[in-house]
Amino acid sequence: MASETEPTTTEPTAEDAEAAISGVIDSARRLGIEMDAREASEWLEAMAVAPGAGDIVVDLAAGVFGHKISMLDFRPDDLERFRAIGRVVGLEDRPGQVATALALSGSAAQGRIQAYPGDADYFERVHITAPTKEAACAILADVIREKAMATASAEGYRLLEVKFGTHHEPVNDAGGSVKVGAPISWTAAEVAAGEKSVARPDGTPMTITWQEAAADPGWCKLDWIVADRVRRRVANASNMLDVTWEAPDGEIHALDGFIDPYYQEIYLEPESMPLFAKIAKQLTGESLERYVDDLEREVRKYAGSEANFGKAARRMYNVFRLTGRHEEAAYIRELFDEPSTVLYQVSSLVRALEEASRPGSTIDAGTVVGQVDELIMASVSVLEGPAESQILSILLRLRDNLIRRGATNDAVVAADVSAARGAAMHAVNEYFYARLMALPAIKAYLEQVALES
After folding, report:
1. Domain that residue 378 falls in
2. Of 283, 300, 320, which closes a domain?
3. Contact between residue 16 and residue 327 where contact means Cβ atoms under 8 Å apart
4. What angle do CA 18, 44, 121 make, to 5 degrees?
5. pLDDT tens-digit series, residues 195-254
6. What is the number of domains present in the chain?
């Protein structure tokens, strides 16, 4: 399938490319990062021919498809597990009204390089055919509410949050301040009730109804905690929606004002190819430019005021591979495979631990305990000194509370969860910061980013 949204590339000579990858490999080895020169060269060669006609690759054996750049990072080993979770998180089609295309995104779509993936992230294109935009928004509200209520709680999963609607005035919600333009966050109980209570900054009570939120759906996303007893794994699963509306004249519009490009998704349903092709035709060269701009805005955030160099690295990887800076991308690609990145799972898992430890939880404790034990051993292998002692003591307390199902005060558990996340992310931050700054080209990029912040 040809596309107007092609990544920009440079055309270095063979000697330039060889010198560049040699420099990258030397930098990696100085930091103790094992970088396979042959594998890196093969990836760079594949990236060099990635752009062009026929940019969508279909894996007939696995029954998946995606942009060839994304497919280079995809490994189908866990497809059955991801498809099983997909049956929980994916929205239902409605013939003649709603068509969907479900895809993996984030670390779930990068099994070749993400040795220690965190959450199970999904992305779903939701295409609504309706006579008016208002009717399309009403249909979307109904579809999301139906999914939320159907998957609110069952053995092995529970709905945590729904993002639907846009705040048009500042409010206080659940004790926190929310700015204008932020998505409205709903619990399962609030979705079922069809309304939620917030307060204006002056303390005046205020009610937001589901129908009011439907007038401006904005950024839509659903989050669950899910467990796999067979693999003894628990994870946070999310589904981010990209919603389009097709008017009677055939014009297609994005309900949030922007149709997302497809450079990070692996689509799980071959039958959704016609819908994907229909939406992809709406993309222009400006779509890629805006997409990269959005990624770089997030790099500035995570390398600056909200320092999280792990998240910054993930976004830089996508920026670099889409803008022809393939040597830098190849270097970052290796960082995700290092043992220290297992600490990302500590941050992801503690939220699951908090949920699984509650009395009456639908998450089987035995499913989680084995995963906690693995994380404890992994933490021992990659940490030392005070950082190791801190994370281990917290994980052991959480594990004990999990076994005793809520015998510990909720406030104590919440404090432990926050401390575990903080300690793990501090260690991850140090790991990525040191390694990103060790490569001169990336150091220069981050310094430029800092000037623009």
Report:
1. 339-436
2. 283
3. no
4. 150
5. 999 999 999 999 999 999 999 999 999 999 888 765 667 788 999 999 999 999 999 999
6. 2
